[in-house]
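Query structure, 121 tokens:
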């Protein structure tokens, strides 16, 4: 490792606040600058990979997550990159018509990503 290099080690957002409601959960998140996922994605302009955003939804869904196996992603849109040190809200809810989750990462100015994660019945 070269002198002065920062060692990335964090793999999760910092949860600033969490609220559970019937059929949904809401989080206020702080995105650490030392996330391992920022290393190499991209070197001069780090952004949070979309697959990590999906991973966090699955991890933070808790009891909302259906028991079946992952089947597919639908209505998936990444509209703005999530940068180091971002402060975001994440809302996760149960799909009404089938086993699955809907999610949205956003702040007061814009939406960053949203979609549906569908599970096998």
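Result returned for the query:
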């Amino acid at each position: 490792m070269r002198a002065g290099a920062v060692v990335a080690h964090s793999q999760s957002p910092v949860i600033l606040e969490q609220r559970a409601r019937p059929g949904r959960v809401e989080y206020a998140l702080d995105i650490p600058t030392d996330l391992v996922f920022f290393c190499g994605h991209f070197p001069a302009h780090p952004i949070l990979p979309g697959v990590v955003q999906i991973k966090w939804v699955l991890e933070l869904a808790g009891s909302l997550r259906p028991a079946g196996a992952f089947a597919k992603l639908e209505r998936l849109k990444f509209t703005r990159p999530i940068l180091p040190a971002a402060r975001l809200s994440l809302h996760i809810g149960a799909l009404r018509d089938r086993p699955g989750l809907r999610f949205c990462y956003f702040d007061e100015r814009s939406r960053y990503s949203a979609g549906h994660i569908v599970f096998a019945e």
